[in-house]
Design goal:
Blueprint lengths: L3 E5 L4 H17 L2 E8 L4 E6 L2 E6 H16 L6 E7 L2 H12 L3 E5 L6 H5 L2 H8 L3 E5 L5
Helix pairs in contact: 3-5
Length: 142
């Protein structure tokens, strides 16, 4: 299987476990791993101090999370890309999978039990609406 495997990250330990699973799947299938972090607002803040100016935005923060995780997942022979995607996490992953023509989305199983199962989860939403295969990685500990 060549193509693209999309995985969502948010800086949490469980998302990192899902990303590591996605990396291993991508390596074994000869696919590109595409690491995505979602942002849901357009908040932007400009901070100036002396002659320096910094622009801080939700999109920039999401891209930084995706880049940091992607950089940590790189291995010889594995192609890894990253992006920030607008929307709630499930929506952003689905849209990014559609945009890139992904063959698979990898999500963690966080909130797949108990009250989270009733209220919904990213994994549940992605599994029901994805344009491609979905792999739900066991990311909870215990």
């Amino acid at each position: 299987m060549t193509g693209i495997i999309v995985v969502g990250v948010d800086g949490s330990e469980t998302a990192l476990r899902a990303a590591q699973t996605a990396r291993d799947l991508a390596a074994s299938m000869g696919a590109t791993l595409h690491v995505v972090s979602a942002f849901d607002s357009d908040r932007t803040e400009v901070i100036s101090s002396g002659g320096d100016t910094w622009i801080i935005s939700d999109a920039g923060n999401a891209e930084k999370v995706a880049r940091t995780v992607a950089d940590g997942l790189r291995r010889p022979g594995t192609n890894v890309s990253y992006a920030a995607a607008r929307g709630k996490p499930a929506e952003a992953l689905i849209n990014e999978a559609e945009r890139t023509g992904a063959r698979m989305i990898v999500v963690g199983n966080r909130r797949m039990s108990g009250i989270g199962r009733v209220l919904g989860s990213v994994a549940n939403s992605v599994a029901h609406n994805a344009p491609c295969d979905v792999y739900i990685a066991k990311t909870d500990v215990g």
